[in-house]
TrEMBL record:
HAMAP family: PGAM_GpmA. It catalyses: (2R)-2-phosphoglycerate = (2R)-3-phosphoglycerate. CDD domains: HP_PGM_like. Substrate binds at residues 9-16, 22-23, 59, 86-89, 97, 113-114, 157-158. The active site is at residues 10, 86. It comes from Chitinophaga jiangningensis. This is 2,3-bisphosphoglycerate-dependent phosphoglycerate mutase. The record marks 156 as: Transition state stabilizer.
């Protein structure tokens, strides 16, 4: 058995373009984001996709629509769940990142953005995001892969970083160095042994 998991971060959003903290704010794609999503779909043309998962936020859903249209995989089941939403930036959402650094200091903003367990005011840490993404992946998404279905997930920079951290078994320091580009498909290929390894790792963690 061999199955594929495709991960795509949404295309550039209007607030990505404006260098603002977005988080759970429901902001759509920029023109560049539409182009990125379209190109991502073209890259997946010829791949079989059996089911897709996305977040409740419009920038991810719009990206998914464009990916499916341009990959030729329209008509497949689509599951929308808030577990795949971006990390919440709480009180920082809507603020310009440079202005925020000027107000609180670059070091403090860097900690809020890049530490694994420190939460921004009123928001989530990457650890919090990990703790909602991974159980959802294991309980809801992985069974489709175990049933030999190829899966597409269109989500967000931090929700996908959490998933990549788990799949690649990265340390907290390693995931802080990992960037997920907008509109660029990442492809993982799993066999039964590698899926069983994920099950075993999840079963031995405190998240199970």
């Amino acid at each position: 058995m061999s199955v594929k998991l495709f991960l795509i971060r949404h295309g550039q959003s209007l607030w990505n373009l404006e260098n603002r903290f977005t988080g759970w704010k429901d902001i759509d794609l920029s023109e560049k984001g539409v182009q990125e999503a379209t190109e991502a779909g073209k890259e997946l043309r010829g791949e079989q996709i059996d089911i897709a998962f996305t977040s409740t936020l419009i920038r991810a859903q719009h990206t998914l629509d464009l990916v499916l249209q341009n990959s030729g995989e329209t008509g497949i089941p689509v599951v929308i769940n808030k577990a795949l939403n971006e990390r919440s930036y709480g009180d920082l959402e809507g603020l310009n990142k440079a202005d925020t650094a000027a107000q609180y200091g670059e070091a403090q903003v860097h900690i809020w953005r890049r530490s694994f367990s420190t939460r921004p005011p009123g928001g989530e840490s990457l650890e919090d995001t990990y703790n909602r993404v991974i159980p959802y992946f294991m309980h809801t998404i992985l069974p489709h892969m175990e049933a030999a279905e190829n899966v597409l997930i269109v989500a967000h920079g931090n929700s996908l970083r959490a998933l990549v951290m788990f799949i690649d078994n990265l340390t907290q320091d390693e995931i802080l160095q990992r960037e997920i580009a907008t509109g660029f498909p990442l492809t993982y290929i799993f066999n039964r042994a590698s899926i069983d390894a994920l099950r075993a790792r999840f079963g031995s963690s405190t998240l199970a």
